[in-house]
Amino acid sequence: MALLELIALFFVARVFGELCSRARVPPLAGEIAAGALLGPLVLGLVQPGEGIQLVADLGVFFLVYAAGMEMTFRGVRRTIKESAAAVAAGSFALPFLLGFLVGLAFGLEARVSLFLGLALSLTALPVSVRILRDVGWLGTDVGHTIITAGLLCDVAGLTVLAGLVGSGTTIPSLDPWTTAQVALKVALFFLTVFSVERVLRLGQDALGRWLAHRSDRWHSRGATFSLPIVIVFAFAVYSEFLGLHFVVGTFFGSVIVAEYLFPKKEGERLRESIAAISDGFLAPFFFAYLGLIAVAFTLEAAPLLLVLLLVAVAGKVGGSYAGARLAGYGPWSSKVVAVGMNGRGAMELVIALVGLELGIITGVEFSILVVLGLVTTVMTPFLLRWFTRGAQQAIAAAPSAAPPNT
Questions:
Q1: Does the predicted model carry a pTM greater than 0.90?
Q2: Which structural domains are found in the chain, ordered by start?
Q3: DSSP letters along 91-122, please?
């Protein structure tokens, strides 16, 4: 039965995605709709079990893997310095504050209100990657800023979550020691990553040439493709071991693989293989899963949902736009960055599930966060196209030494 459910989910997701693509709508909108149609929310033909969730997680892995293969450490460092840090600060702080104030205004406990603010401040990196690839902006400065700033938001969110896990119901009872421990783990992760990157950089691609030469001599088929996956898996496991989401390790591991471990020719082949597996097979499962876990909620929760949706979009777009302008982007590019940061998708759903399992939020708040994640995920590609109409040449330019000022 599980296999039949996977086949049905994949088939309907691909059909809906193709229909959306023909209608000039990003395919992920159709894939999410396919999951909602087949899932408990409408027909109830497919249940969101562990098997489907595992396949969806593999979809997340390969989406982020593909994104990292399009970037370099030199570009990541430059993006953080020039734009991503400012964008991430505005994109995280403003929706966090607004979500917290809305929760208090509706009479929720301080810890629940903080959790709502945290969920509103996240950016779904896999969703951003897919949207940017669909509209052709993944390799631009704007695309790099969205991806890197989204990653910084998620790392900050995971750190805040650690403090909420050990907290009581009032703000002063947040556990500073737990938060400090996670902050140290985050620092350890980045220290490890950048130490590995420095060693490889000093080696001047010697390890990459050796690995490519050795993998060509292996008798097993697909060794050239399997070896980098093992390396990226190692970084993903390491980040999970430290208490971070595997997305963080996957991203930086894939950047290392792309920049240092394979010569240009092999790297291009690897990118094509990853894109085929991601876009052609696993990514539709991930986006269909987002629709699959959608749940119904009562009318009593509608006012809180509407207000949170309003402040979620306004806070994310407004904070990201201010950060982009501060970083030197012009009006059009700043709009693209702001709207691109709005999708929450997977990360918000992951955080919402953690909050529900730990008793921080109830089923009502969980349902609201699921709907928020789905709505912002679906609306983001439409807003991107609307905001950037007439300015595609400016934002689709090849990466330059400075952010585009259009």
A1: no
A2: 53-392 (1.20.1530.20)
A3: HHHHHHHHHHHHHHHTT--HHHHHHHHHHHH-
